[in-house]
Design goal:
The chain has 455 residues and is an alpha/beta fold. The chain contains 14 helices and 13 strands.
Length: 455
């Protein structure tokens, strides 16, 4: 007897098979799914059982429940990012670590890929110099890079003799003279990571180098951008869960209403910038006069109010309603301490020139900033600042986000914690173990991601 299926029934059956296959393939991409770790098994001449691989390398035995848990967690991360305005493509380009860093406050970290083992992280050549910021935080004290890190079984080394046994090697591109300074790779499973805290315009400090000279060398990226394999943003804003009491949050209201006695400030020691930011500041100064204070050596500013560069905080900034967070480059997601520390950290509203408005909308809380692109010019911005200065009710609206978001400064400036080395350790635990190489570095990091100012 032959059973005839309708066209609709056949279509449903095909869709069911395709959907099942797609889900299975997606699960295979996550390290929690029950398959052997490719980093260790790929080079073996004889097949090994899953149990043998796990026992040798300390991997906890994966289960279907672990895979389901990881898949559910990933969907939760993605849902939150969609709510913040990220596109599916942007989310797809982010590492698991990056997604977790933007999750609501208190979200548990992802499940570790490997347990019962330690990692060695080597900082190539420039470890002692970088220590001033990432270990000492511009103080005379030494702080543990693993303090309050979600993982702690990592060791830091500056000794080049550790190259052969390091699990990850961090290369600071800004201080690298040429590719010849890089060693010969001795381990295929070693993660080579390029680090840059500068915009693509200032990736290299020495010589006229090309990014293409470094093609095929690095496995992971490490920058302020959230689509880096190891994201190290200058700061973050994370949402406070609704069930958390706001008794410790609302204190900003009284402070803002009683301490903001000056209008706007800007502070800087670098008087350049491809976006003509200081020309914009000069125009604002001619319009606002004494209502705009320039601190630092640019435009004949006040050099005595806030001495010290990154090592000492500037308490005087707490008196201002607004801060000109004008970066030296208008590049993708380039938001520095000017936003997170000098503005948000001082209960001021940042006026941003740097990252695009779309970037700011995704990365920063709603109605928490002004953007230079929203104004026809300095005169329009000056008029709006004077309007908000006269209208307390409208000005306070730019602070109401503080009830729902928390600002996290973690870049080592002004005594704040630095999370750079912690993030490398976390990436070794949480990110995919799949092989990855940046064969064309400019496809990820390029001046094409930067634009001149519209002003």
């Amino acid at each position: 007897m032959h059973i005839k299926f309708s066209r609709f029934a056949r279509l449903v059956f095909v869709l069911f098979i395709c959907t099942t296959a797609a889900i299975f393939c997606v699960l295979l991409l996550f390290p929690g799914f029950p398959v052997a770790d490719r980093r260790y098994s790929a080079s073996r001449k004889k097949p090994t059982s899953m149990r043998e691989t796990e026992e040798e390398h300390g991997r906890s035995a994966p289960t279907q429940s672990n895979a389901r848990e990881l898949f559910t967690r990933m969907m939760s991360f993605d849902k939150h990012l969609l709510e913040r305005g990220f596109t599916d493509e942007q989310i797809g380009n982010m590492s698991l670590l990056g997604k977790w860093l933007l999750a609501p406050e208190g979200t548990p970290p992802p499940r570790s890929n490997i347990t019962n083992r330690s990692y060695l992280i080597l900082i190539w050549k420039h470890g002692p110099f970088l220590e001033r910021r990432h270990i000492r935080r511009f103080t005379k004290n030494k702080f543990s890079p693993w303090d309050r890190c979600s993982v702690g079984n990592c060791t830091l080394s500056y000794d080049e003799k550790d190259l052969h046994r390091a699990d990850a090697v961090v290369f600071h591109l800004h201080f690298t003279n040429s590719p010849s300074e890089l060693p010969v790779r001795s381990r295929a499973d070693q993660r080579w990571i390029f680090l840059t805290d500068e915009s693509p315009f200032h990736t290299f400090l020495h010589g006229r180098q090309r990014l293409s000279d470094y093609d095929g060398l690095f496995n992971w990226s490490m920058s302020y951008r959230m689509d880096s394999d190891v994201p190290v943003p200058y700061g973050r804003t994370v949402r406070i869960p609704e069930d958390v009491s706001d008794s410790n949050v609302r204190h900003w209201d009284a402070i803002v209403r009683t301490t903001k006695i000056k209008l706007v400030a800007v502070m800087g020691s670098n008087c350049g910038g491809r976006n003509e930011r200081w020309s914009y500041v000069k125009a604002l100064k001619s319009l606002l006069g004494d209502d705009l204070d320039i601190l630092g050596r640019c435009l004949d500013g006040n050099r005595t109010v806030c001495p010290g560069h990154f090592d000492r905080d500037c308490a005087a900034l707490s008196a201002y309603k607004f801060y000109l967070s004008f970066e030296n480059s208008n590049c993708r997601e380039y938001l520095t301490e000017k936003v997170f520390w000098n503005a948000y950290g001082k209960l001021a509203v940042p006026i941003i020139m740097g990252a695009s408005r779309n970037d700011c909308q995704r990365l920063l809380p709603p109605r928490s900033f002004l953007h230079a692109d929203d104004f026809a010019g300095a005169d329009a911005l000056a008029d709006y600042l004077r309007y908000l200065d006269r209208n307390d009710k409208q000005y306070i609206k730019y602070h109401e986000w503080r009830d729902r978001y928390r600002v996290i400064n973690e870049h080592g400036y002004f005594g704040s914690v630095s999370r750079h080395y912690c993030r490398v350790c976390e990436a070794l635990h949480y990110n995919s173990v799949a092989q990855k190489v940046y064969t064309r570095l400019e496809h990820f990091w390029s001046k094409r991601d930067c634009a001149p100012a519209s002003a």
